[in-house]
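#struct-help
A.M.: can someone run this one for me? Single chain, 171 residues.
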Amino acid sequence: MHVETLFAGDRRIEKLPDANDNNELWQKLGQALALNNTVTGNSESTAKSGEAAVAGDPTEVALYLAAKQAGFNKSALLKQLPQAAELAFDEDRKCMTTLHQRDAGIVAFTKGAPEVVLDMCIDALGCEGSRGLDRNRVQEQAEAFAVEGYRVLAVACREFSELPETARQTR
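D.P.: on it. Structure tokens below:
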């Protein structure tokens, strides 16, 4: 399994832009794909296959590798944004959240079923910054991807001044 297409910044793209692109949208998306997973193992390429020697859920591995190919290195990011807590995926929540310590507080990255993640959001981050979320447009795009046969996930982020109580209970 691998990432074939993304919908971000009101457009469909084939791959995540390079980590050197300082646009906030691409930085947050790259960080989310690199950090919001339980992938384990060596992320360096193996001589035999050229694939990263990592293990985990195939969807998470695909997202992790998409981020890595764009230059978002999980190990390096974890030094900048150490993981403070994780709310694991479960059938009730239908999403996974990792929370990371930053200089100015906490950043949470969530991925999961589009209808669930969209219900948590009030804004959308685009190439020009934050703006109102057009839920219908995003849901329609998610449904169009599903009709094309894609596995569809939504990704979101949120900033907190401190670790939320619900995350403290999981530590």
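A.M.: thanks! The CA atoms of residues 1 and 29 lie 19 Å apart.
D.P.: also worth noting: The two ends are 31 Å apart (CA to CA).
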